[in-house]
Write a structure and sequence with these properties.
The protein has 9 helices and 2 strands, in the order αααααααβααβ. It is mostly helical and 187 residues long.
Length: 187
């Protein structure tokens, strides 16, 4: 029997857990935008809900093209608020558009969003050695620092808990429990 982190055992989350969560995303600002968007949309909801709507988010947010999303106007926001296939939370939708704009501003300053975000760990993934999921923190001091910096750059819906979840999603933190069969398969 294959052991996984508990949250990755159900059918909806299994593919994401096994092949994406904790895998480093470097040099791909579009994938980073997707990860950040999914984490901010998840705030207050279950990850399973987000995974069920993931493809709909992809369509709604122009296949994760942050350049296009950054141009969404009020009419586009109104259409998205009416789209029952996604999370219709106006502030979250506005945050996604805002964050697309901020990614472009970061690119102008740092060359890429990837370079900006990975500088916090000097480009290295931190591999944690948790025995149980109960040990995995919801946030860390580093997540609080990155959250503060993202907010200073104008990002929205990037509190320390959402930021830490983003860090896990993009592989800055490998928080698979030690017994998880996928712990060592992530580089």
């Amino acid at each position: 029997m294959m052991i996984r982190c508990n949250w990755g055992e159900d059918e909806v989350n299994q593919e994401y857990h096994d092949h994406e969560w904790g895998v480093p995303i470097r040099d791909d600002d579009q994938k980073l935008f997707e990860a950040l968007t999914l984490e901010l949309m998840q705030s207050g909801l279950s990850w399973k809900t987000i995974m069920k709507k993931r493809q709909n988010f992809k369509v709604a947010f122009s296949n994760w093209d942050y350049n296009q999303v950054s141009q969404f106007d009020q009419d586009h926001i109104e259409r998205l608020v009416q789209d029952s296939s996604i999370i219709r939370h106006r502030k979250k939708i506005e945050a996604v558009i805002n964050n697309a704009q901020q990614i472009m501003a970061i690119q102008a300053e740092f060359g890429s969003f990837s370079h900006f975000i990975w500088r916090y760990t000097e480009g290295v993934s931190q591999i944690n050695h948790w025995q149980t999921e109960a040990e995995v923190p919801a946030k860390t001091d580093l997540a609080e620092t990155i959250s503060r910096d993202l907010k200073r750059y104008g990002f929205k819906f990037v509190g320390p808990t959402t930021t830490y979840a983003f860090m896990q999603a993009i592989g800055m933190m490998n928080d698979h429990i030690e017994a998880c069969a996928f712990k060592g398969s992530i580089h």
